[in-house]
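Morning F.,

Quick status update on the modeling queue. The single chain you submitted on Monday has been processed. Sequence for confirmation:
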Amino acid sequence: MKRELILILSLVLCLIIGFSGCNSKKKTRNAEIGTLLDDMPCEKEGKSDKNFFRAYSMAESSNLQLSKEKALTAAKQRLITLINSNTKSVTDRYVNEREVGDAAEFEQKFENLTREVANETITNLVVTCEKSSVLSDKKSKKYRTFVSIQVAKEDVLNGMNNRISRDAKLQLDYDKKKFEEIFNQEMERMALERGY
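Structure tokens below.
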């Protein structure tokens, strides 16, 4: 009887230790994950609509200024990618809807032109949101910065028109009105996809 009692108590003790070990692992995992965000700060301000190309980003660093610079650089890269992607879609549609002399050459020149214009228009960007927070524990302190930026659609279109006016060969196949019409349609499509 005494032996059975010791065996039962030992079993109960093992179960208690086992369950308490499971609970501590759950707490550790939750502490490692931290608080999950439903919406990222500056995310809403970083969504493109029919009038603006927009992008947002987040970066961390042990230095506040460096976290801001990293977030801005990442947002600029996203914005350039968005402008290039959108303008590529416009160019593809434009070439398909119009009879262009040498379509492949036209597309290649336009792609190069788009990259140049995207890089140029970044100088006209506006920071629409910037928020920073500090994360600290006993060992270290980190800064997290959220940023959103925008460039007006008109800045991109004007840049394209200015560049095309300097290239006589592109001017031959370029119908400004038709290009802008397709460009506006693509901006509206992009806005609808993002819920605006």
